[in-house]
Amino acid sequence: MSLPPGFLDELRTRTSLSQVVGRKVMWDNRKSNQAKGDMWAPCPFHQEKSASFHVDDRKGYYYCFGCHAKGDAISFIKETENVEFMEAVEILAQEAGMQMPARDPKAAQKADRRTQLIDLCEAAQKFFALQLQTAGGAAARAYLDKRGLKAEAQQRLGLGFAPDAWRTLLEHLQGKGVAPDLIFAAGLAKPSQKGGQAYDVFRNRIMFPIRDPRGRVIAFGGRAMDPNDSAKYLNSPETDLFDKSRTLYNHGPAREAAGKGQQLLVAEGYMDVIALSEAGFGAAVAPLGTAVTEHQLAMLWRISDEPIIALDGDTAGIRAAYRVIDLALPVLESGKGLRFALMPDGKDPDDVIRSDGAGGVQKVLDGALPMVKLLWQRETEGKVFDSPERKAALDKALREKIKLIRDPSLRAHYGQELKDMRWGLFRQRPIAGRRFDTRKGLSMSGSATKASLLVSAGDEAQDRLREAVIVATVACTPSILPEVLEDLADLTCADDLVEQVREALVRLGHCPTDQISQRLEEIIGPQTLETLLSARHVAITPSVRTPGHDDLARMTVRDELAKLAAQRGLAREIAEAELDLEDLADEAVTFRLGEAAQTRAMAERSAREDKRDYDRGPNGAHIDKDERNALDALLNQIGYGKTGK
């Protein structure tokens, strides 16, 4: 159905977003300002206690700083009421007292046909449920009872039985006056390809109704009772109602359970989902006869930021997990991930429940691996890396996988995680009692949290200052963001507030530069940015005091990044040298220490020239003579004087 121009604008004008949202949340009165339409509440889309969900009533826009849900009144109705776009528009129009425009005849006809098909599927479900209670369904009932599904559960789940006959359902529906073409369109029967009579799609099978998110039956899955049947499980064919690549079994109940705080689980089949749900894991879904598709992955992430893929602990389950990894890598984004829980000893979730109960399943889920670790396992398991060629082949394979990740910030984090695991693999004799600081590359003792004695205590503090200046400079002059985006994406800031601003800037890296400042405030809030810019070491930096000066900002960011790289290179050289003290011969130790000493000398030379006196020059920039002259000219132009004075 198409809407006339201006209809949605008028609808949004008449609709108060705070009133629409207010039916689902409790406003935080201490944080909200109703007079300005600035409202805050705990997010209705994920479980939390803090008021991170923001509604701007004047702009008609909401955003959650926790789960990043965002949109307008229409999208809010869609998500919370589980309806399609036009249904959400109709709900809001009715509340606003607006008359919906006349429907397009063709669209109305299509909608009416969908309604007919749904009614037909609902009728078929009732027929199958009755057949399960007959004498012909005795074997099916016995099988379900053996699997732990008693009569009450069978009725509640709408399970049924398709008789072992060719035309039972077809004749039943035709007897109610339903045209054969409609029965074919619903995927319940097929015309003969050999000139004979039409026949039922499902015969001698236990029937599982497949429902849309609103709970309406749109298709069926059937499990064969005959062990010699060529297809153990059979789904309805594709119809106007049913696209198996865009449907999840148990979608509606799982979404409701996930909204109440349960972890979203993705199992392999109907019985796994049912067993999990009956054991108390209500937020369980399954794809329908295929591997998880990109559309289904998007549906999962709309329900939960980090679903757990719960697969059978056999070779097929491992292969399925690896296929999900390949599918997910190109569509990953910040805050949206996957974890993998592989059942033990070749069991499926239903087996674990029957042998170890719900506690056994929970134990497996608690040990679920993040996707990066399963990716590492796939590339390294069963392989020996005892030569440079084999190590290089691993590096190449990992690089190719990381390249698939489009989000630059996420790509950088994946790269760092894999580097750390690679370090652990190739340095197989760690020093007892030591751990590795993945951000700095510093070798740390288990009894102390200080850096190596070879590194001065002020290095980390200086790095924090530099990180803050870099991020604040880009925030004040966002026109340079496209030039420094890759460097910003590779940076990981120690301070949580600075890291929050950095991540937001990376997310905005491909936005028009004239929109970045406004979007940045929408994402992180004005208070966060104000806190960063008001910090003394940031506030007195020329590139922050003179926002919008591209050349000054560009030079400051470049210089600070170079100094960070030098200092962190030093830290890694020292870490390697310390490990080599345990692992290498004297000549190698001497070489390592020599490398560390040279890097240290470079860093100290930079530090002597940069006394961190933020009142002098462009943040104490360490630049060559030509760059210093150019910077002097810039600072004179804006009234700051010479860089070294």
Automatic annotation (TrEMBL):
Binds 1 zinc ion per monomer. CDD domains: TOPRIM_DnaG_primases. It catalyses: ssDNA + n NTP = ssDNA/pppN(pN)n-1 hybrid + (n-1) diphosphate. A zinc finger (CHC2-type) spans 43-67. Its cofactor is Zn(2+). Contains an N-terminal zinc-binding domain, a central core domain that contains the primase activity, and a C-terminal DnaB-binding domain. This is DNA primase.
